[in-house]
Prior knowledge:
Elements: H1 3-6, H2 17-38, H3 46-58, H4 62-82, E1 84-85, H5 87-105, H6 110-113, H7 115-139, E2 153-154, H8 164-175, H9 177-192, H10 197-211
Parallel strand pairs: 1-2
Amino acid sequence: MKEENVTHGFWYADWSFPIFVGIMSAAVFAGTHMYVQYGVGAFNEVAIVAMLKAGLDGGSYGAAAAFGVSFLFARILEGSLVGILDIGGAILTGIGIGIPAIFLSMGIKAPIENFTLALIVGAILGLIVGGIIILIRKFTINQSNSTFGAEVMMGAGNASGRFLGPLIILSACGASIPVGLGSVVGALLFYIWKKPIAGGAILGAMVLGAVFPIL
Protein backbone atom coordinates (compact mmCIF):
# COMPACT_ATOMS: atom_id res chain seq x y z
CA MET A 1 0.00 0.00 0.00
CA LYS A 2 1.36 3.40 -0.93
CA GLU A 3 2.21 5.86 1.80
CA GLU A 4 -0.19 8.51 0.51
CA ASN A 5 -3.04 6.01 0.84
CA VAL A 6 -2.01 5.02 4.35
CA THR A 7 -2.00 8.61 5.59
CA HIS A 8 -5.56 9.05 4.39
CA GLY A 9 -6.83 5.82 5.97
CA PHE A 10 -8.83 5.19 9.11
CA TRP A 11 -5.99 5.82 11.58
CA TYR A 12 -5.29 9.29 10.15
CA ALA A 13 -8.84 10.39 9.34
CA ASP A 14 -10.41 13.26 11.27
CA TRP A 15 -13.70 11.39 11.63
CA SER A 16 -12.04 8.48 13.43
CA PHE A 17 -10.70 10.66 16.27
CA PRO A 18 -14.08 11.10 18.03
CA ILE A 19 -14.49 7.31 17.88
CA PHE A 20 -11.23 6.75 19.76
CA VAL A 21 -12.14 9.39 22.33
CA GLY A 22 -15.58 7.82 22.70
CA ILE A 23 -14.15 4.36 23.36
CA MET A 24 -11.74 5.63 26.00
CA SER A 25 -14.40 7.81 27.61
CA ALA A 26 -16.78 4.86 27.82
CA ALA A 27 -14.16 2.86 29.71
CA VAL A 28 -13.31 5.74 32.05
CA PHE A 29 -16.96 6.55 32.79
CA ALA A 30 -17.62 2.86 33.49
CA GLY A 31 -14.59 2.90 35.80
CA THR A 32 -16.22 5.69 37.78
CA HIS A 33 -19.37 3.55 38.00
CA MET A 34 -17.25 0.72 39.41
CA TYR A 35 -15.75 3.06 42.00
CA VAL A 36 -19.10 4.47 43.12
CA GLN A 37 -20.67 1.02 43.36
CA TYR A 38 -17.76 -1.10 44.63
CA GLY A 39 -15.06 1.32 45.80
CA VAL A 40 -12.47 0.37 43.14
CA GLY A 41 -11.88 1.04 39.46
CA ALA A 42 -11.62 4.82 39.09
CA PHE A 43 -9.13 5.92 36.43
CA ASN A 44 -7.45 8.87 38.10
CA GLU A 45 -5.02 10.10 40.73
CA VAL A 46 -5.85 9.43 44.35
CA ALA A 47 -6.16 13.13 45.23
CA ILE A 48 -8.67 13.77 42.44
CA VAL A 49 -10.73 10.69 43.21
CA ALA A 50 -10.79 11.88 46.82
CA MET A 51 -12.83 14.90 45.68
CA LEU A 52 -15.51 12.59 44.33
CA LYS A 53 -15.28 10.46 47.46
CA ALA A 54 -15.86 13.55 49.59
CA GLY A 55 -19.01 14.25 47.60
CA LEU A 56 -20.23 10.68 47.97
CA ASP A 57 -19.68 10.85 51.74
CA GLY A 58 -20.87 14.40 52.38
CA GLY A 59 -23.29 15.08 49.53
CA SER A 60 -21.42 18.11 48.17
CA TYR A 61 -19.99 17.56 44.69
CA GLY A 62 -19.04 21.17 43.98
CA ALA A 63 -15.27 20.72 44.25
CA ALA A 64 -15.13 17.61 42.06
CA ALA A 65 -17.49 19.10 39.48
CA ALA A 66 -15.72 22.46 39.21
CA PHE A 67 -12.23 20.96 39.14
CA GLY A 68 -13.08 18.24 36.63
CA VAL A 69 -15.11 20.32 34.20
CA SER A 70 -12.59 23.19 34.23
CA PHE A 71 -9.89 20.71 33.24
CA LEU A 72 -12.10 19.33 30.49
CA PHE A 73 -12.82 22.79 29.07
CA ALA A 74 -9.15 23.78 29.15
CA ARG A 75 -8.04 20.56 27.44
CA ILE A 76 -10.66 20.96 24.70
CA LEU A 77 -9.24 24.40 23.89
CA GLU A 78 -5.68 23.08 24.10
CA GLY A 79 -6.45 20.07 21.90
CA SER A 80 -8.19 22.22 19.31
CA LEU A 81 -5.28 24.60 18.87
CA VAL A 82 -2.21 22.46 19.49
CA GLY A 83 -3.49 19.09 18.29
CA ILE A 84 -2.73 17.30 21.56
CA LEU A 85 -5.52 16.01 23.76
CA ASP A 86 -4.36 15.41 27.31
CA ILE A 87 -6.03 12.15 28.35
CA GLY A 88 -5.45 12.88 32.04
CA GLY A 89 -7.15 16.28 32.03
CA ALA A 90 -9.83 15.79 29.41
CA ILE A 91 -10.97 12.19 29.83
CA LEU A 92 -9.79 10.93 33.22
CA THR A 93 -10.48 14.12 35.17
CA GLY A 94 -13.14 15.83 33.06
CA ILE A 95 -15.31 12.95 31.92
CA GLY A 96 -14.30 10.52 34.66
CA ILE A 97 -14.74 12.84 37.66
CA GLY A 98 -16.20 16.23 36.69
CA ILE A 99 -19.24 15.15 34.69
CA PRO A 100 -20.23 12.29 37.05
CA ALA A 101 -20.03 14.79 39.91
CA ILE A 102 -22.39 17.11 38.03
CA PHE A 103 -24.82 14.26 37.39
CA LEU A 104 -24.79 13.23 41.04
CA SER A 105 -25.24 16.82 42.23
CA MET A 106 -28.34 17.04 40.02
CA GLY A 107 -29.71 13.79 41.36
CA ILE A 108 -29.11 11.94 38.07
CA LYS A 109 -27.78 8.63 39.34
CA ALA A 110 -28.77 6.17 36.60
CA PRO A 111 -25.66 6.71 34.38
CA ILE A 112 -23.44 6.19 37.43
CA GLU A 113 -25.24 3.23 38.98
CA ASN A 114 -25.90 1.18 35.82
CA PHE A 115 -22.85 -0.32 34.10
CA THR A 116 -24.38 -0.55 30.60
CA LEU A 117 -25.73 2.98 30.78
CA ALA A 118 -22.35 4.21 32.04
CA LEU A 119 -20.68 2.77 28.93
CA ILE A 120 -23.24 4.39 26.64
CA VAL A 121 -23.15 7.80 28.32
CA GLY A 122 -19.34 7.78 28.45
CA ALA A 123 -19.14 6.94 24.76
CA ILE A 124 -21.56 9.73 23.86
CA LEU A 125 -19.61 12.25 25.93
CA GLY A 126 -16.38 11.17 24.27
CA LEU A 127 -17.90 11.49 20.80
CA ILE A 128 -19.04 15.01 21.66
CA VAL A 129 -15.63 16.05 23.01
CA GLY A 130 -13.77 14.58 20.03
CA GLY A 131 -16.23 16.13 17.62
CA ILE A 132 -15.87 19.58 19.19
CA ILE A 133 -12.08 19.43 18.91
CA ILE A 134 -12.16 18.41 15.24
CA LEU A 135 -14.84 21.01 14.46
CA ILE A 136 -12.88 23.84 16.07
CA ARG A 137 -9.72 22.79 14.22
CA LYS A 138 -11.59 22.73 10.91
CA PHE A 139 -12.71 26.33 11.32
CA THR A 140 -9.49 27.70 12.84
CA ILE A 141 -6.01 26.22 12.66
CA ASN A 142 -6.60 23.82 9.73
CA GLN A 143 -7.75 26.63 7.46
CA SER A 144 -4.10 27.43 6.80
CA ASN A 145 -3.58 24.00 5.18
CA SER A 146 -0.85 23.04 7.63
CA THR A 147 -0.75 20.21 10.12
CA PHE A 148 2.05 21.79 12.17
CA GLY A 149 3.52 18.30 12.58
CA ALA A 150 0.97 17.19 15.15
CA GLU A 151 -2.67 16.87 14.11
CA VAL A 152 -4.60 15.38 17.03
CA MET A 153 -2.54 13.08 19.24
CA MET A 154 -3.27 11.44 22.54
CA GLY A 155 -1.27 11.17 25.72
CA ALA A 156 0.21 14.54 26.73
CA GLY A 157 0.51 14.19 30.49
CA ASN A 158 0.05 16.98 33.00
CA ALA A 159 3.78 16.92 33.74
CA SER A 160 4.56 17.86 30.13
CA GLY A 161 1.98 20.63 30.06
CA ARG A 162 4.55 23.26 31.03
CA PHE A 163 6.41 22.63 27.77
CA LEU A 164 3.36 23.14 25.54
CA GLY A 165 3.46 26.94 25.75
CA PRO A 166 6.20 27.41 23.12
CA LEU A 167 4.57 24.77 20.89
CA ILE A 168 1.25 26.60 21.06
CA ILE A 169 2.92 29.90 20.15
CA LEU A 170 4.78 28.33 17.21
CA SER A 171 1.58 26.71 15.94
CA ALA A 172 -0.30 29.99 16.23
CA CYS A 173 2.46 31.93 14.44
CA GLY A 174 2.38 29.38 11.64
CA ALA A 175 -1.36 29.93 11.22
CA SER A 176 -1.34 33.69 10.67
CA ILE A 177 0.31 36.87 11.95
CA PRO A 178 -2.70 38.09 14.01
CA VAL A 179 -3.22 34.68 15.61
CA GLY A 180 0.49 34.44 16.40
CA LEU A 181 0.54 37.96 17.84
CA GLY A 182 -2.46 37.17 20.03
CA SER A 183 -0.76 34.02 21.26
CA VAL A 184 2.44 35.88 22.16
CA VAL A 185 0.59 38.67 23.97
CA GLY A 186 -1.59 36.20 25.86
CA ALA A 187 1.44 34.14 26.91
CA LEU A 188 3.25 37.29 28.05
CA LEU A 189 0.30 38.45 30.17
CA PHE A 190 -0.02 35.05 31.83
CA TYR A 191 3.73 35.01 32.45
CA ILE A 192 3.47 38.39 34.18
CA TRP A 193 0.56 37.08 36.25
CA LYS A 194 2.67 34.01 37.13
CA LYS A 195 0.19 31.65 35.45
CA PRO A 196 0.97 28.83 32.95
CA ILE A 197 1.69 30.52 29.63
CA ALA A 198 -0.08 27.77 27.68
CA GLY A 199 -3.47 29.07 28.81
CA GLY A 200 -2.65 32.65 27.86
CA ALA A 201 -1.28 31.58 24.48
CA ILE A 202 -4.46 29.63 23.70
CA LEU A 203 -6.84 32.39 24.77
CA GLY A 204 -4.86 35.10 23.00
CA ALA A 205 -4.73 33.12 19.77
CA MET A 206 -8.46 32.37 19.88
CA VAL A 207 -9.42 35.99 20.56
CA LEU A 208 -7.44 37.45 17.65
CA GLY A 209 -8.27 34.43 15.52
CA ALA A 210 -11.96 35.29 15.94
CA VAL A 211 -11.35 38.94 15.05
CA PHE A 212 -9.01 38.15 12.15
CA PRO A 213 -10.10 34.73 10.81
CA ILE A 214 -7.68 32.74 8.67
CA LEU A 215 -8.60 32.94 5.01
